[in-house]
Every structure is written in structure tokens, then in C-alpha cells.
Amino acid sequence: MSSHRAEKDRSSTKARVSHVAATPPRRRAARRRSGLSAASILGGAALIVTIAGAAAGDLSSSARQTAAVDNSSADSGLGAGEADTVAASSIGVRSSATTQSRTGISISRSGSRPEAPVADSSADTTPLAKAQQADLADAAQQQAALRDETLQAASRDAQSFAAALARARAAAELAREKAALARQKAAEEQARQDASAEQKAAVASDEWVLPTSGFRISTWFGEAGPYWSSGYHTGIDFATAYGTPIIAVDNASVVQTGYDGAYGNQVRLQFENGDQAWYNHLSAIEVSVGDAVVKGAELGRVGDTGNSYGAHLHFEYRLASDLSTGVDPAPIFEAHGIHLS
Predict the structure, then answer these.
(1) Residues 178-213: pLDDT tens digits?
(2) Of the candidates 210, 312, 319, which has an alpha carbon nearest to the alpha carbon of residue 264?
(3) Among 242, 244, 182, which residue's Cα sits nearest to residue 210?
(4) Which residues of 310-328 are buried (b: 16+ CB within 10 A; e: fewer)?
(5) Distance between CA atoms of 9 and 2, rounded to whole angstroms?
């Protein structure tokens, strides 16, 4: 009986829904037909089936309510149209209730999810929380202090390394300078030894050495001219740079030094045989009367004193037999192994 009643309700519901869907709006009643197409009927039937499937749990209650409505209609003497109206209203109420029930379920499901707790800093005021916060702050301060100490130690190490590197570089530079100075001293000592050996060899021989260096012969012996009181040149002029050293051509003794009129600053040497060599126009005298000099010894510096026309050494040679008159030095040099040109 209950299944028969439910089937009857479904049929009645379909009929009413089709009747409602087929009823046109009142304002367009004049322009439309009252009948429905097959597609509209099928669409309405599909909608009914969907609603019926979604509300399957409520069918028994709907059947009972429909039966109660039918019975009530029968008892109250309602007509068929009025009964259909009441049934449609019941269906609408159930549909709305079902929709609300689903909405409620959805809301209850979403509402049942627990929300993440929001940290409330004001709640952390318990003694334990305060102690934990203090411990964290102390730990952070200790880490910061340790980091600062590490950085300071690294900085000190870097400075120490830089200072050590600078000291090492300075020591290396000093060592290079000392080595260069030692090489220079060794070279100078070797040069002195070589010069001494040459000087000793020259002393042992009868050869002379040149009286100066870097020169050219500017005036030879015997050249005539108004520059000399005798009317001719009484020596040989070695033109060279001012301040160039002058040298003893052989072993000799210093017999005179000082300024001598037209000769300017002068040094006179006397050899073992009594002959003399005069060095004139000097800028400096570096020996004294009575000094014994050896071949190659420095006597003074080239100058431009007295009757001079530029820096040069005026060299005269005088024989022991006549020291008042100068003779040509060129043959004397030639006799002692030096050829002037």
C-alpha cells in the first residue's frame, strides 16, 4: 500500500509539474498556445527525476504527507484541482526544505573546520613565558657578542699578518740593498787592486802615464802668438773638463806649489835625474812641498787660473841643465812610451 501510494504521488507530481510548466504567463496568454512540446515535457520530466533522486531520503515522508493531504482533501470535500494545488505547495515546501538542509550541511561542514589559533602576544605574560623570552634574549646577546669577538679577532689577525708582511718586505728590500752595496764595494776594491797592480807595474818600468784624461791637444810646443811673453808656446796644452784630476807622470818629489803669475796655480815635480815637470792653471792643489809622489798619484785639478783661455792643463818640461827654459815635452813622452797626437 505504501509503495502504491508513493508511485501515485510521483505520477501526480509529474502531472502537476507538467501542468505548471505548460501554463503560460498571464500577460502573454493571448500570443501563445496552451499546449507543450515534447521537448519541454521531457525536460520537465528530467528535472523532476533529478529532484526526486536528490530527495530520495524524504520520499517516505512526502508520500505520507501526500496521503495525508489526499485524505484531508477527501475528508474536507476538496475537488481534484484544489487537491493538486495543495500537493504542489507541499512539494515546493519540501524542495525548499531540502535545499535549506543541504545549505545547512555545507555551512555546518565549513563551520566545523577549526580555525588556526592566532597568537596573542598579550597572552604570553605568564612567568614561564617571560622566562623563556628572557632566555632567548640572553642567547641572542651571547651569539652577537661571540660574533663581534670573532670579527675582532679576525681583524687583529689580519692586521698582524699585514704588519708581518710589511716587515718581511722591508727586510727583503734591506737585504737587496746590502747585497747591491756589497757588490759595489767588491767591484771598487777590485778596481783599486787592478789600478794598484798597474801602477806598480808602471813604477817598475820606465814608462810614463798621461798627466790627465779625456783631453785633446789644443796647443803644441813652439806655436807662435801674441799670447805668450816669449812669443811662442813653451809647453803642451791638454784641454779637458774643468776639475779633471791631474796625475804624476812618474815618481817624483814636490818642489813647489802655489800661485805663479801667468801660470796660475802651479805644482812643480822634480824627477830622480833632476829634470822638472810643471803643471799650470790648476783649479785645486792637493799636494804640498816635500811630498814624495809615485807614478799615477793625483796632484790636483784642471782649472782656468792665470793667463788662460779656458780649462786646460799647461804641461812644461825643463831639463836639469837649464831649468829656466822649457823644452818640447813630446819627445820626452815618446821616450817614455807615450805617443801624443
Answers:
(1) 999 999 999 988 988 887 776 666 555 689 999 999
(2) 312
(3) 244
(4) ebbbbbbbbeeeeeeebbe
(5) 10
CA distances 216 to 19, 168, 299, 339, Å, are 149, 53, 20, 13
Instruction: For residues 88 and 95, give the distance between their C-alpha atoms in angstroms, rounded to a whole number.
Output: 10
Give how far Cα 189 sits from Cα of 175, 184, 217, 296, 304, Å.
21, 9, 33, 17, 33
Residue type at 229 in one-letter notation: S
CB within 8 Å of 212: residues ≥ 6 apart = 238, 240, 244, 245, 246, 247, 302, 313
Closest CA to 240 of 325, 329, 169, 304: 304
pLDDT value of residue 275: 97
Question: DSSP per residue over 233-285, as a string?
Answer: --SEEEE--TT-EEE-SSSEEEEEEEE-GGG-EEEEEE-TTS-EEEEEEEEEE
Crossing angle between the packed helical segments 2-22 and 80-112, to the nearest 10 degrees: 100
DSSP label of 288: -
For residue 301, the tally of other CB atoms under 10 A from its CB is 20
The tens digit of pLDDT for each residue in 166-183 reads 999 999 999 999 999 999
The per-residue pLDDT for range 124-168, each reduced to its tens digit, is: 578 888 888 888 998 999 999 999 999 999 999 999 999 999 999
At 176, phi and psi to the nearest 5? Answer: -65, -40
pLDDT for 12-48, tens place per residue? 555 554 544 445 555 554 444 445 555 556 666 667 7
296 in Cβ contact with 202 (< 8 Å): yes
Whether residue 91 contacts residue 13, with contact meaning beta carbons closer than 8 Å, is answered with yes
Non-local CB neighbours of 235 within 8 Å, separated by 6+ positions? 221, 278, 280, 314, 315, 316, 317, 326, 329
Backbone phi and psi for residue 32, each to the nearest 5 degrees, phi listed first: -120, 160
What's the pTM?
A: 0.43
